[in-house]
Amino acid sequence: MTAVPQPSPGPGRPKDPGKRLAILEAAKKLFPRQGYDATSMDAIAAEAGVSKLTVYSHFNDKESLFSAAVTERCEEQLPHAAFELGPDSGPIAERLREIALRCHALVTSEEAIQLHRMMAAQAQHDARLAKLFFEAGPRRLLGEFEALLARADATGLLRVEDPAQAAEHFFCLVKGLAHMQVLIGARPPLTMEQAVRHVDSVVALFLSAYGPEPGAR
């Protein structure tokens, strides 16, 4: 007798994207404020207004939630669209300036400074958190910018033989000396006027090294 095939189980109850967003917002708030070790999944659940079971239904563990929160924060400030090049993208100098301004605002924000300090302290006994942060945030931004530079080189907007190295140059210039001074508490963050002047000088310097051939767009 031929066995009758049994229906496969359904995919289960769909997850609520609103609750996922609330969990990420809570994580972005609590991790910088309280530190990684001191921030429990119970605290994140309470801040988000959901159960701990709901938190774990969206994120397997605290590490994956931390990584997702870092990625979410970076994408808020520097979304994928910021790195796109197309017919309506405008002059390459303006695109570089926009990315630099967004990046500078991100890395000098209070929460970013708190996260950097937290990871520096954590690295004394466990560098795993810093690696998670780098892969979820800076590595993603570097990859996006490398791809933009490669496209700009291919279309003659820039001259970039090594996009990875050029991306590193760009972001290190954007951070500048002031970032380290703010990080160690030696000075307050730049004012908006100071930040704009700094970014404009960075873009001018970058274009002097990687700018297009004369006559190119």
Automatic annotation (TrEMBL):
One of its GO terms (molecular function) is DNA-binding transcription factor activity. Keywords: DNA-binding, Transcription, Transcription regulation. The keyword Aminoacyl-tRNA synthetase does not apply. The keyword Transcription regulation applies. It comes from the Bacteria. PROSITE patterns: HTH_TETR_2 (PS50977). Residues 17-77 form the HTH tetR-type domain. Residues 40-59 bind DNA. This is TetR/AcrR family transcriptional regulator. It comes from Alkalisalibacterium limincola.
